[in-house]
Specification:
Structural class: mainly alpha
Strand content: 5-15%
Strand order of the largest sheet: 5-4-3-6-7
Shape: globular
Distance between the termini: 71 Å
Low-confidence stretches: 4-9, 27-41, 213-219, 403-414
Mean pLDDT: 81
Largest sheet: 5 strands, antiparallel
Helix content: 55-70%
């Protein structure tokens, strides 16, 4: 049979016919990506933001509940019970979500399956998460909300648990709703698709014969089967969304199956994890069919929660093989995928890490009829090692590793890992050793340290360098301290050219190991040395992510290193920083004038971190403000942290939020203007050392300049109200320095009013 070459594929004539019918492969996705003023100082500057977050979560709980009721009724009464009046409440809730939304996003309900032994019920079974627009709700989050709100919301955790409890019985591990513009065509499409989803579950779960030939005269519901011969909800919904008979989509799947028998076509399609996704690789399908706005148990959603990431062929193969082995248990399938590709390892407990390691070990050691190829096993181990690098040190310290060949276990931990496959076991042993090496490095700030062969091997593996290079690196690091553990800035700076070649790894290495252990007198020198290192690096987004995740890792604590985190973050947000080679302890106020000079790549990276860690970030700001309030009320330092330090730290938060410009930051900065723009508040009435009121006015100035960057005319009334407080501010103190501070604040209020008013 002759061969035809088309778009890089070499096909025989029969395969070419199938190829042409599907319109050719669209290769755009092909790739190998890595992916009003108050009466006093506000006790909660994030009150409005917290209210917004709570409102979102209450709405999401209600939405999950009405959806679960819909599916539960269908499960009990079958396909014939699907009624328009049952779909209407879901459409109403989606309408409400759309009205609250800033963008045309998605609502994703996804199984997680974490363990929580303290709960009296089977928490692992009902551990789902619902998320939209960066807001998420699970049972622990809703319990915390109920505790804040009191008896009026005490029913919410039980309501969410009851809703989540419906999904396992339907074998649902994810449901994704895409809202779109939510005009009438989108509403009608959602209505049609939801009814089809109900019919699918009603027929499937009621054991009504499933038809795939489009013949519905007998009252049964026709479904589409995937390439493995299984009833496929997404292919079925694809038919419904496009008002096609099931047989039409089934024919496309058959064509796809025939095409995938061709090695060259398979190579082009191997990045897709299901027949449903693979169909949309073809231009004709993209142009003629629209994706349904509801997707159920889509494997892509289980990995990243989004269809936007391009899968590598290796990653896709791992996901497909997990699905083939565990498709009969959708919950175990998700838990295993999360064990390989989860994004929450930084929050892992020893027990949950133990469970994930055992799932990976079982996956690698139980090939059955589908053994992993060498490259696929490498993909699994590489992904797991990357994620183990995010696990907290104390978790590894509490984790015991059995050594079967030695006949004994590691008795230093409290949460014993069952026997792992040899490669995984070696990986865990390495990370436990890395904890010990880290401790040695931290102790360099206090005393002279000697490193041994295991330390060199650990650092070599951590940095992916040779043992000799690791030894040289640790010698460079030792040169940054004298025999008594004092930091030598010149020692670090002369070695920066040698260290910079390690990129963000060396930055993270220095930051994590030394930020908390240096004495106060060394912190400024260390910070400015890191700025010099930053100027030599070309990995700004990665460094920003590292700093912000570290800042958010202790939401209920304030550390001296927190201010340095944000100072460095504010440096990294800009393309060029004239202060990069100067000694600074605060971010210059003038950066609030920078717009074109911001790095769009860095701003996006920072915004993405805040979106992912919204709760932790705003709890951190709340903690900072709470300590500041306590200091103002008592007129004393809190836990040795001067009020000026806390003011400075809060100021860095406002500058950072103003620079990244995300909506939650708008609420926080507006609250700051209300707080520091009130001359009757406690911060101005309390007697303190001279100049403290002027420092608070500088705080106001930063908040006003930050607020003006949003250019929101709804802020005008607040700005005008504060501007009218000039006489009240001048009455606080009579000295000229304070008057000058008031005048400067008023000038910036005038500028902000002009900027917000517009042309």
């Amino acid at each position: 049979m002759s061969e035809i070459k088309k778009n890089g594929l070499v096909l025989d004539e029969e395969a070419q016919k199938l190829f042409d019918q599907l319109g050719g492969i669209d290769r755009r996705e092909r790739g190998h990506s890595a992916s009003g003023t108050g009466e006093g100082l506000s006790s909660d500057p994030l009150g409005e933001e917290q209210e917004l977050m709570d409102l979102w979560r209450i709405v999401l709980v209600d939405f999950v509940y009405v959806l679960a009721q819909f599916l539960s009724k269908i499960k009990l009464h079958g396909v014939n019970s699907v009624r328009a009046e049952d779909v209407a409440p879901i459409i109403d809730m989606l309408t409400k979500i759309h009205e609250m939304s800033d963008r045309n996003g998605r609502v994703l309900i996804r199984y997680r399956g974490m363990r929580m032994p303290d709960e009296k019920f089977d928490f692992e079974r009902v551990d789902y998460v619902v998320a939209c627009e960066g807001f998420s709700a699970d049972i622990p989050i809703i319990k915390a909300l109920a505790n804040r709100k009191g008896i009026a919301m005490s029913h919410l955790p039980g309501k969410l648990k009851a809703a989540f409890d419906r999904f396992p019985s339907l074998n649902v591990n994810s449901v994704c709703f895409t809202l779109g513009k939510w005009q009438q065509p989108e509403r009608d499409l959602m209505w049609t698709t939801l009814q089809a989803a109900g019919q699918f579950f009603g027929a499937y779960k009621s054991k009504i014969p499933l038809k795939g030939d489009g013949n519905t005269d007998d009252g049964s519901f026709s479904v589409v089967y995937n390439d493995r011969g299984e009833p496929d909800p997404n292919l079925t919904l694809l038919a419904a969304a496009n008002r096609l008979k099931a047989e039409n989509i089934q024919a496309l799947v058959q064509k796809l199956r025939g095409l995938m028998k061709q090695p060259e076509a398979m190579d082009a399609l191997e990045q897709y994890v299901s027949a449903y996704d693979a169909l949309f690789a073809f231009k004709n399908v993209q142009e003629k069919l629209q994706k349904p706005p509801v997707e159920i148990n889509n494997l892509r959603r289980l990995v990243v929660g989004s269809g936007d990431e391009v899968f590598t062929p290796e990653k896709s193969e791992v996901v497909r093989m997990i699905a083939q082995r565990l498709g009969g248990s959708p919950q175990k399938l998700v838990q295993t995928i999360d064990s390989v590709y989860g994004n929450d390892f930084s929050a892992m407990t020893p027990e949950n890490l133990n469970a994930r390691l055992m799932r990976v070990s079982h996956l690698l050691d139980s090939p059955g009829n589908n053994p992993f190829s060498q490259k696929t096993e490498k993909e699994v181990l590489s992904s797991v090692e990357k994620r183990l690098g995010q696990v907290r040190d104390d978790v590894f310290e509490a984790l015991a590793v059995n050594q079967p060949e030695a006949g004994v276990g590691d008795d230093q931990g409290s949460s014993a890992v069952q026997t792992l496959t040899q490669k995984l076991q070696g990986m865990v042993v390495y990370f436990k050793r890395r904890v010990l090496t880290k401790k040695k490095i931290k102790n360099m700030a206090h005393t002279s340290i000697d490193f041994d062969a295991e330390d060199y091997e650990t650092v070599a593996r951590d940095f992916d360098i040779s043992v000799e290079e690791a030894k040289a690196f640790l010698e460079l690091l030792k040169g940054c301290f004298d025999g008594a553990g004092n930091f030598l800035r010149t020692g670090l700076e002369k070695n920066i050219p040698h260290m910079a070649k390690y990129g963000v790894k060396i930055f993270g290495f220095l930051w994590h190991y030394l930020r908390k252990t240096l004495s106060r007198k060394d912190r400024v020198a260390f910070l400015n040395s890191l700025q010099t290192l930053i100027s030599k690096m070309q990995q700004t987004p990665a460094a920003l992510t590292l700093l912000l995740e570290d800042f958010c890792s202790t939401p209920d604590e304030v550390l001296f290193s927190d201010r340095n985190s944000l100072i460095l973050a504010n440096v990294l947000l800009r393309k060029y920083n004239k202060e990069i080679h100067n000694d600074i302890e605060i971010t210059p106020e003038e950066v609030l004038l920078v717009r074109e000079g911001l790095s769009s790549e860095a701003v996006k990276a920072a915004g993405d971190v805040i979106d992912n860690l919204t709760d932790a970030f705003f709890q951190k700001i709340r903690t900072i403000h709470g300590k500041l309030l306590k200091g103002f009320q008592k007129g004393e330092e809190d836990e040795g942290m001067p009020l000026r330090f806390l003011l400075s730290l809060e100021r860095e938060c406002y500058i950072f939020l103003a620079l990244i410009g995300r909506p939650p930051g708008h609420t926080v900065i507006k609250s700051a203007v209300k707080t520091y723009g009130n001359p009757g508040s406690e911060i101005y009435r309390k007697k303190r050392e001279k100049g403290f009121e002027a420092a608070c006015l500088k705080h106001l100035r930063v908040a006003v300049r930050g607020l003006s960057r949003y250019e929101d005319q709804n802020d005008l009334s607040l700005l005008m109200e504060v501007r009218n407080m000039e006489k009240a501010f001048l009455a606080i103190r009579k000295d000229q320095a304070f008057k000058d501070s008031v005048q400067k604040a008023m000038q910036w209020l005038d500028s902000a009013i002009d900027a917000v008013s517009g042309p």
